[in-house]
User: Fold these one by one.
Assistant:
Number 1:
Amino acid sequence: MNDAELQAILTPLAELDPEAGREALRLLAGTGADQARAAAVAEDGVLAVSQEPGLGREVVQALCLLAPEVPGRRFAACRRLIRAACRRGPTLGAAMARGLAAAEPSGGPRLSARFLRAFHALEATGSHALKLPLEAFAALAAEDPDAAAAYLDLLAAVFSRRWHYHQTLKFIQRIPALAKSLPPARRGYQMQAMASVARREPDVVRPFMDGLEADLALLDQADLRSFARRGLDRAADSVEAGRRFFRLESAGAKELCASL
């Protein structure tokens, strides 16, 4: 498909939104995407632009990133997911489009499945919960797909529980900030450990984050896993004791951390 053919296929989109049409032409030109993929971008772009111009540009950009990279059935599935999210509103549609565009090219179906679990957990919390966590996911996916997978597991584990409004806001802000601040070499297993703890005892997740911003950050993967198991044992007897343990406020926690 040459540029003239591509431009002709994108004409309905360009007539409705010239900016979206130019962006689609720029992103698709020279990528090897075939005429069917270009037609899909134009079709779904027109629908989304008709709903809201900003949403349309998000959908166009996402589909242009997916079109050259994703196998046929997966591309069709992504289109269905984006369309379904758009029907629930522009905020959800844009978040779904951005997330799939980050997940599929870097991690394929397995990362996309994790993204969908996290997305639905965040969506159940409220559309306000989507922006910051998913922006951080997109950055992680481009840099380190394994860490991005652990991050999504953490989001799904934390937000599968309903928190008070102010607690929710704190998690929305803190989890992305912590993920960005963790050392890249340790970030993946540290988030895996947090996700494991969140699935077992959500009430000690924030104290665990406090600990990871202190001396727990120095533990290797096996030692951090061992420390987390001990902390969960404490929390099973007393949630408050578990909190103190993960924050390294108890003598036993300090001694264990120093010995590992």
Note: The mean pLDDT is 93.
Number 2:
Amino acid sequence: MWKETKVVKNVSQYNFDARFGVYATTDRGDKSILHIGDKEIALNKVLSVRSYGDKELVLVRDGSGGYDSMLYTKEGKLLNVVNNTIPSSYNTNLRYLNVFMLGGDDYDGCYNLVDIETGMAIFKEYVHGRELFVFNDMIFSNRDNTIIRYDWDGSIMWQHNYEPDFNVKINLGFVMEGVCGGKLWVKSELDRHEILLAIDVKTSELVKAFSDFDEDTNLPHCNLGRISGVHLNCKNDQILLSASEDHKPYMIILNAKTLEVVEKNERTINFDYLEGEEYGFRISEFYGDYITVKMGTYNSDVCNNSGFAVYNYKTKEVVLAHRLFTPEQSQDGLGISPLSPLHYSPNNSKILVHDRWNTLHIFEDVKE
């Protein structure tokens, strides 16, 4: 049975890791305490706590305006520190971090990758004006609608400007969703018009575009409505899309290898959230067979997600659901943080939920 077993104040929305139950508290003087294993470690202000493998990666301010990345074992032993790093995107390979230095007349800066485990730089020369992203074991950068894939010696494997592939203006920004099913997934957002690109990682070819207008491109295209959210499930080689058609919300699952639609359902789960009231939810994560969502009823707290649920999309059953705040508390501004991670794994006995008041709620599967 799942129960809330601990409440911790002064935890920012990215300063916890559900896999190992690690978190950092920060006081008003911007001093943090990292709670890891059975240790409490004093640090400068912590900005994020994330994990890969059996290691924890902690990003802290260095005291002079920059950032340091600190690598720990999950028990709290410090393994290495890399200075002058910048925050990583969520789906990237966390072992490889961007380091930054100013350079050039345009002040764009220069980037390189460093292996946090060895402290060694990956490229011999810095890359000007293009932040680097490592997905799986592949290196990319994205700027001005041009994506570059690099080899591990810094040489360019391919470079492609995707503007000519479309009949409308696009804006790929500079981040990417990630790599899944042999495709690089990138989303264009411009004037509320959204297009999802599936790009062959080997050739740079735009394999298919997904949007709500057939005339967007003359290349292979699929109209799945207006796409508002993209969630990669590399464990199952699937993509979960939050989309809407005629103002009706859907959840769409794609096979990332074949790009075929596996299923398309109304965006709802089989759960009575609050005595039959209609509710909406924000999808947080798609991992294995599970989708985690943050929920709120339309007539009281849809702007402040007051509860959460774990949904098995294969069995169509809710594994766990909990209302954290009452409608009255939601009206007063209490709610679950919209952007904080919400991770569930059947192999993990803890779920960590973060609210808007920087409080961390720890739920455990308590055996009775």
Note: The mean pLDDT is 91.
Number 3:
Amino acid sequence: MPDTKNIDLSSQSTLAKLQEVDSELAIQEAHLLSQLESLQEKRSSLKTVISLFTADDRSLVRKQEEVIVTPQEKPSLISEPEVEGEQEPDTPALAATVPTAKTTKSKKAASSLRNSKKVPPSKRSTKVSKDASEWQQYIREDYEKASLTQAVTSVLQSQTERVWGISDILNEMFGEDLPQAVESKLRHQVSNVLGGGARENKWYRGQPGSYSFSKKASEKG
């Protein structure tokens, strides 16, 4: 009869390998999702910039039309019949003010265009920080000033001999009252951070989905 013990060991080894492959695929999926979100944010920012340029171009054209019309209207206001013996009106001084008005409006239009180009970076930074704000409102006070990578590192360092699962890390950082949608997204992000840190030898990977600062502990776990 076949050795039942050897068959069980072989099955466990195969299962462990399959679970590890599944964990790696989950990390890759999280990475691709992160890249997709980044591309969507960049595209949205680009659309915002395009709309601003379109609006500013229309505004600049209207202002330039006003500047062109204004000097043509003003000379009719200063025409007066000449009276013998009276001093001629000081028309050069008045005429000199007309180009000044035109120059001032042109400068304002150019300044408005330059200022509008400075708007998109602030909008991009707001969108970049939107994902972070979704989970930072749930994080515990001990980690509220840290980035997600820093928070994960702090958790692993708090008990260097412990083997941590992703669920353990999430509970340590956020407690057990996370909304399901936020928890699902965070699980992918934390998995991505853990996988990247293990590849850079910042910590060690044990069983699928388990990590530790101790190489010895990770091998046992």
Note: The chain is about 75% helix and 5% strand.
